[in-house]
Amino acid sequence: MRAVWLRDFGAPDTLRIEDTPDPVAEPGQVLVAVDFAGITWIETMFRATGFGPFPKPPMIPGNGVAGTVVAAGSSAERHLVGRRVVTGTGGAGGYAERVAVDARHVIEVPDGVATDDAAALLADGRTALMIMEAAGIRTGERVLVEAAAGGVGSLLVQLAHAAGAEVVAAAGSAVKREATLELGADIAVDYREPDWPQTVRSSGGGIDVVLDGVGGAVAESAFTLLGTGGRMISFGFSAAAGWPEITDEVAAERGIRVQRGVFGPPEEQTRRTTEALALTAAGRLRPLIGRRFPLDQAAAAHTAMENRAVVGKTLLAL
Q: Which CATH class for the 2-108+288-317 domain?
């Protein structure tokens, strides 16, 4: 099979496609013929710097795939053969034509959900739903979504709108801002502009909830928009930005709850992904897929993500 290997940390061109022996499903595993592999921001950070919870090189990157089960490791998993599924890989192996995965983590893709949509929802769908629960958004609240045209952010715009909130989307280009308005945002601002917090205030006042997917100075500016009783959920950041420098003491003085990261045990993640797939099957949630790159263009996909040149989720298509 063809697979993309990372043998040393560095620039995107360290990702190179190689002929690789097919994996074999052991008992408790199934073999998935991959149609789409998801790319996450943390995978680009890992490739560049080694930051992330993944095996060290040499390795095949990719922590989530969607495709069809083509073999089972034992009779206990045989009922999954022929089924369309979406699944995590355990941290590696996804940028390949086939991958052997733990059968316990396989989720069947419902009828009416496209396989690429399922791939886009695997990590981002569960993350968005956990963020929404942590934020406790109520009808009539004003919610700021940073990186609102990203994979998670575009889902949060839809979910916050469905919860009855007024949604302020912060995104870094005119194309991205337009995309958020189409998804249900009421207002879209450019967080690259130095006076963007004032633009938010002048458009309707302060903010009740900040959903922070950027970190650094952008998140710190967003924090100033919150009043007493506000909530800030930080769920992502770039390597250069890092978590926002907001101390617990400052947050407490202003009566604001700040949460860094959203986590859950494997069973919770599976439940949330299943929920996101069901919402999509019902027409209530739509993943925004910006680009689908061929497997042999994995380096170009990472480059596009690092340059913030894509809207929504980026996938490898096999």
A: alpha beta
